[in-house]
Amino acid sequence: MNNKLRIAPWIPAAVWMLIIFSLSAQPALASNSLSRGVTKIIVETVGKIIPLDIEMSTLNDIVSQFNHFVRKFAHFSAYAVLGILILFALAKNEIRGKKAFALSLAICIIYAVSDELHQLFVPGRGCQLKDVIIDTSGALIGTAIYKAVNILRANHISK
């Protein structure tokens, strides 16, 4: 396999890391504004599915209550995707099994730690061990999902 084919599977993971980095580089006010906007969309969408007769002040209270959860779920989800993308790149480079799982998790943890350290230099942001744990949990679940899908696919193909 030539070097281009070995590097190409890493491009999605690298792009995803850049997206994580750019979101982490947002000052606290901009980051919170973005997540509150996403939270508001979620609350309004749920309100359309389950009709709720709520006033604007109540909507703002609900958004405030759920915003923290949405922010932490975003951490979890971003690293679940990163875990999947890294495991995919490793598989395309013929690294599989326990070695790939451990390497993928290690890369995600190192990136999560570096991302939190990076936030020390962003206005209003900080470094939180809790976020590294949430990121690691997301990476663990993402890699587990990737492995489960591949096992199911292999079982389906062999039948």
Q: Can you describe what's shown?
A:
This protein has helices at 3-7, 11-24, 28-49, 56-92, 97-119, 129-158. It has one domain. With 159 residues, it is an all-alpha fold. Helices cover 82% and strands 0% of the residues. Helix 2 packs antiparallel against helix 4 and helix 4 packs across helix 6. It starts with a helix and ends with a helix.
Keyphrases for this structure?
single chain, 82% helix, mainly alpha, 159 residues
How are the secondary structure elements laid out?
Elements: H1 3-7, H2 11-24, H3 28-49, H4 56-92, H5 97-119, H6 129-158
Q: Report the sheet-strand fraction.
A: under 5%
What best-fitting shape do the alpha-carbon axes yield? globular
Largest beta sheet, briefly?
A: none
Mean pLDDT, as a whole number? 90
**Which regions contain 5 or more consecutive residues with pLDDT less than 50?**
none
| Structural Rg | 19 Å
Oligomer: single chain
Helical amount: over 70%
Number of domains: 1
Brief characterization of the structure:
This protein has 159 residues and is mainly α.
